[in-house]
Design brief:
The N terminus is likely disordered. α4 runs antiparallel to α6. This protein is globular. The chain has 2 domains: 216 residues, no CATH class; 83 residues, no CATH class. The chain is α+β, with helices and mostly antiparallel strands. It contains 11 helices and 17 strands.
Length: 318
């Protein structure tokens, strides 16, 4: 049985000029969710709209309820959909969390699920004046809510897991479980002093933009560097043949900028335009790339030269 090392409770304190903040441990997922939603704009970004939809969606064998959905308007007029789930690090990854995510993925292939979500999101936005106003601002009033949400649901969603603490070796355990659906991990931790709370978070924009810090939501400017060079991140690959292949692939973009990002990811861009993301794993590397049709690909695992050449033929490069 796997051991959740997050239970070891490595305690941190936040030291400020006004005093010391000690870590606050959430009673349950609901408390974590409420604090994240209260800071939705700081956590998810100004160009996103968080929709607090508790919608039951059913796959063939089991019904599950979403925690929340996020419409991400950063890259194109039609927003990208994130399925946001809140979890505590003490929860069993293999028995509870991954099976739940598989259920969501299967449910999204069901047209009834798409219809239920579309109606729920539409009603949530339309009935909330503040959300409706922000939606129109982000969509630049060019699209009607119902049609825009429908188009977003027709694309490939991404799962965002928000944790209080990441379980030990989570990326490798996802790999071993053969769960390959696009999934990102966010940490949201809370510290308190005399009833005042501050929060430690790696915000959504840090996954895909130039920020390489975990930002602290306090009055003073504080950050913790979690970055590393491209070479240091690539050292995470344990298979020597895969590492050499990765170096060879990156050498194809010698005139482009290759920049480190949060976790084990790097981004490749030219003329300020991103066209390739690479995530290093122990026995392979994963890529997401801009296709010739202008859309981003789903995450693809690269184990050998054939895998790379198959994906490379569909690349669009600026």
């Amino acid at each position: 049985m796997p051991v959740e090392k997050s239970e070891e409770r490595d305690e941190f304190h936040v030291l400020t000029d006004s005093g010391t903040y000690t870590e606050h441990h959430y009673t349950n997922e609901k408390e974590l969710e409420q604090l994240v939603v209260a800071h939705a704009e700081e956590v998810f970004g100004k160009n996103t709209l968080y929709v607090d939809v508790k919608q039951k969606i059913a796959s063939k064998f089991q019904a599950r309820i979403t925690d929340g959905l996020l419409l991400d308007f950063r890259k194109k007029p039609i927003p990208h959909l994130w399925v946001v789930e809140y979890e505590l690090g003490s929860h069993d990854l293999e028995r509870h969390i991954i099976p739940q995510l598989r259920g969501f993925v299967k449910a999204f292939d069901n047209e009834e699920t798409i219809t239920a979500l579309r109606n729920a999101i539409y009603q949530e936005i339309s009935r909330n004046e503040k959300k409706l106003r922000k939606f129109k601002e982000l969509a630049q009033e060019r699209e009607e809510v119902y049609l825009t949400v429908d188009k977003a649901l027709q694309g490939d969603a991404t799962i965002l897991l928000v944790y209080d603490r990441l379980p030990w070796n989570i990326e490798e355990r996802f790999d071993e479980s053969d769960f390959t659906y696009d999934t990102y991990f966010m940490v949201f931790r809370t510290f308190e002093r005399e009833g005042k709370l501050v929060h430690l978070v790696n915000p959504l924009h840090s996954f895909e933009e130039s920020a390489r810090t975990v930002e602290l939501d306090v009055d003073s400017s504080t950050s913790i560097d979690v970055g590393g060079s491209v070479e240091e991140k690539m050292d995470y690959i344990r298979d020597s043949a895969v590492k050499e292949l990765c170096k060879k692939c990156l050498a194809e973009f010698s005139t482009a900028d290759i920049l480190p990002r949060y976790g084990h990811w790097v981004v490749v861009k030219r003329n300020s335009r991103e066209f390739l993301w690479i995530g290093f794993r122990q026995w392979f590397f994963a890529i997401e790339y801009l296709q010739r049709n202008g859309r981003w690909s789903r995450r693809t695992r690269i184990y050998d030269q054939d895998d790379w050449e198959k994906a490379r033929g569909d690349f669009w490069t600026p």
